[in-house]
Amino acid sequence: MAASTYRSFNIFRSRLGTRKYCTNVHDKPSPFMVQEVLEQLNLQDGQTVLDMTFGDGLHTEALLKSNDNVKVIALDRDPYAIEKAKALTLKYPGRLQPLLGRFSDLPVLLSPIGIKINTLDALMFDLGCSSIQLNDASRGFSSEVDGPLDMRMDGPSALNSITAYDILTRADEQDLGRIFKTYGSENQARKIARSIVTCRYTFQGLNSTGELKEFLKSILEEKSGRVVKNVFFALRSFVNNELNELNFAIRFAEAYLKKGGRMISLTFNQVEDTIVKRHVSGNVLETNPNPMPLKYYGQAFNLSVEEMNELRKSIWAPLSKHVITPENHFKSMNPRIRDAKLRGAIKL
Ligand SMILES: C[S@@+](CC[C@H](N)C(=O)[O-])C[C@H]1O[C@@H](n2cnc3c(N)ncnc32)[C@H](O)[C@@H]1O
């Protein structure tokens, strides 16, 4: 290894020093862009809405409070979130139905409670981590608090699931690079992957979120904040299969919403927003949203205008002309929401 790389590894080791595990550094957030969400949902008496990402329950409670004659089905894959949802049912008797599971489990979960396809009035998802997840250092989601490299949304007792630690210790250099590039849109993916593999042999690998963050800072010259965010997001997204889950979410939204039903999505990075946008605008091939606009799809993809129009057909109509983003003053208060986007669509 080059002398300069040794030096940066040693700086990384010494920076770690006596770092301790700690908890609860985040304040309890309020429901994100709640006014815009409620406006776009436009809930009416007697309607049922599926909150696919219960999390801390802030949006769910806002929906319940917005109209006394609305019912909410609250889904989350995190057992701790669903415990919270169960507690909330006492406050809203007969109006809140908690469901533990993933987007991809929806048909199995909805059938026993009598929800059939083409029947839901509205649904929403607010992607990312809840504060229950971020504030608990032992879950390993946050780069702000030191904890084990876990990152499983399904909780620490989830069976047959991989953790971020498994990926960092077992994936080869090429796969690590692909994960950082594809899931985190990280430009320095290959350099980071190579350094992580080298670190396994020279310093017995990375064992905590704090070690990973300090390690990244030590191998990057500048703008490490953005890179740390990208790498943490890539690992979390890969561990939880989030992009495929999002694809399932929209596929099932198509199936379970009635005609005229509304879907509201809140995403926090470009990769997620692109998936939603491609579905809503009809840029989908073989059930997967395309990585690029159809007209650039490649030379083998020679279609007539009619065929192209057929492919671009979408069962969605956007609820607003432009994507909705948070006010600038909110963005400066919270850099995590810099890339946040709200998209609303109506099922035709
Ligand atoms: C940002 S939080 C939602 C916060 C919530 N809207 C609120 O106001 O408190 C996202 C939640 O979605 C859940 N989640 C993410 N992907 C999921 C999936 N594929 N299936 C079910 N729940 C998921 C996470 O476990 C997390 O609790």
Automatic annotation (TrEMBL):
Keyword Cell membrane recorded: no
One example of a Gene Ontology biological process annotation: rRNA base methylation
Classification via Gene3D superfamilies: Putative methyltransferase TM0872, insert domain (1.10.150.170), Vaccinia Virus protein VP39 (3.40.50.150)
Keyword Endoplasmic reticulum among record annotations: no
Source taxon at top rank: Eukaryota
One GO MF term: rRNA (cytosine-N4-)-methyltransferase activity
UniProt-listed Pfam families: Methyltransf_5 (PF01795)
Keywords: Methyltransferase, S-adenosyl-L-methionine, Transferase
Cited PANTHER family: 12S RRNA N4-METHYLCYTIDINE METHYLTRANSFERASE, S-ADENOSYL-METHYLTRANSFERASE MRAW
Family classification: Belongs to the methyltransferase superfamily. RsmH family.
Name of the protein in its database record: Probable methyltransferase-like protein 15 homolog
Gene transcribed to yield this protein: LOC127748595
